[in-house]
Design a protein that fits this description.
The protein is mainly α and about 400 residues long. Helix content is about 75%, strand content about 0%. It has 18 helices and no strands. The radius of gyration is 20 Å and the shape is globular.
Length: about 400
């Protein structure tokens, strides 16, 4: 069973990596997508908002589907759809084709996002120690790869479909092969554990602080994802080629932070790590807002990566600890606020940029991320709260799989 868990961890990390590649290839080429389809600045926020809305629908569907279908199976068949939809974004010519491709991307991306984190939470429970940040580190690595490929496409002035086709051709079969080793919560759990929400109720008021932190984290992340290229090019006067770099810088520092984050959680605790991340992220937004040029702006995005990187993985992990008997449902509901953050962040920065200034708009997520400090204690070990009048399983039972890990 130890080898099974290790293979499951490696294959799931690869799934996170592929998701990072796909998302980065989409968001870092927004200016090129806008030019290809003739999307106006006024219409662009609507297109950007449609993706998280539909992804939220996909995440809600995942919560319902995992009652009958294992999360591993949902991940196995939904991730290829994400890759094919990305190719559709690059291959279309008319705005209606862009709308259809983005709709497919949004609906499909919600299922892998939710199911990957479900599998990650269950594997962390089986391992008995913090490993959640390592999965999100793989996502960051995928973002670096995707942003680097986007830079190459912009540098060589390649058509979008030319940039996307080789990536999809390589990753699609690799994802299908790697999915053979996913480890489901149902397979790793001991027979005495109550799984998939049976016997435990996800009480929203207990989940709400984590939902707020998730929303704030993704407001910050969506600001970088959707506006960093445009900010560097239009506000700080960089070239189109250089404008693809901030997201790459952000993902590099996110990768570094997440690579060592699990050790920080084990050493200092989740509360201290979350508080430190919020303070560093707020400093990053302040630097971006006041940057006199592109390279100082890069420094700000570097700080943002180091600060924001710990918030999302720890939020999923905290939800899994809070509802060990209904972790799939808790993760799926929490994941919706991922898209709420994107839905708020993208239009908010765009509207403030048009009405006020993009520099001023960067101060709003700075203030919001500081709100995380208020809820940091929600990441501490919680008192036992087991819904439905049942006694919560012993800690030793919750922390191990059938192999006794």
């Amino acid at each position: 069973m130890t080898d099974v868990l290790r293979r499951g961890r490696a294959s799931l990390a690869f799934g996170f990596l592929v998701q990072g590649v796909a998302f980065a290839l989409l968001v870092t080429r927004i200016p090129a997508i806008q030019d290809r389809y003739g999307v106006s600045d006024a219409l662009l926020p609507a297109f950007l908002a449609a993706v998280p809305i539909l992804a939220g629908v996909g995440s809600v569907s995942t919560e319902r589907l995992v009652r009958r279908v294992p999360p591993s199976r949902l991940l196995r068949w939904s991730q290829p759809v994400v890759l094919l939809a990305l190719l559709g974004v690059g291959a279309g010519e008319r705005m209606i084709e862009l709308a259809v491709a983005l709709a497919a991307f949004g609906l499909a991306v919600g299922m892998p996002d939710a199911s990957m984190n479900m599998l990650g939470v269950s594997l962390q429970r089986s391992y008995g120690r913090s490993i959640m940040l390592s999965f999100h580190a793989a996502y960051s690595l995928g973002g670096i790869v995707g942003a680097s490929l986007a830079w190459a496409g912009a540098h060589w002035d390649l058509a979008l479909w030319v940039s996307y086709l080789p990536v999809v051709a390589v990753l699609l079969p690799a994802v299908l092969v790697g999915s053979r080793w996913y480890v489901d919560d149902r397979g790793a759990a001991s027979a005495g554990e109550e799984k998939n929400g049976e016997g435990q109720v996800v009480v929203f008021k207990w989940l709400l602080p984590l939902c707020l932190v998730m929303t704030v984290a993704y407001i910050g992340d969506s600001t970088v994802s959707n506006w960093s290229a445009k900010y560097l090019q239009d506000v700080l006067g960089s070239s189109e080629q250089l404008a693809t770099v901030p997201y790459n810088v952000y993902m590099v520092t996110t990768l570094l932070g997440r690579a060592i984050g699990d050790f920080g959680v084990r050493r200092f605790g989740a509360v201290a790590v979350v508080r430190g991340g919020a303070l560093v992220a707020a400093g990053g937004f302040a630097v971006v807002a006041g940057a006199p040029g592109a390279w100082v702006g890069m420094l700000g995005f570097t700080l943002l990566g180091l600060g924001l990187c710990v918030l999302v993985p720890q939020t999923f992990a905290a939800a899994g600890r809070l509802f060990p008997g209904a972790s799939d449902a808790a993760v799926a509901r929490l994941n919706i606020f991922n898209y709420v953050g994107f839905l708020i962040g993208s239009p908010l920065v765009g509207a403030l940029g048009d009405l006020w200034s993009y520099r001023g708009a960067m101060l709003v997520p700075m203030v919001l991320v500081l709100v995380t400090l208020v809820y940091a204690r929600s990441f501490a070990p919680q008192p036992d709260r087991y819904g439905g009048g049942h006694e919560r399983p012993r800690t030793a039972d919750v922390g191990r799989g059938s192999n006794g890990l």
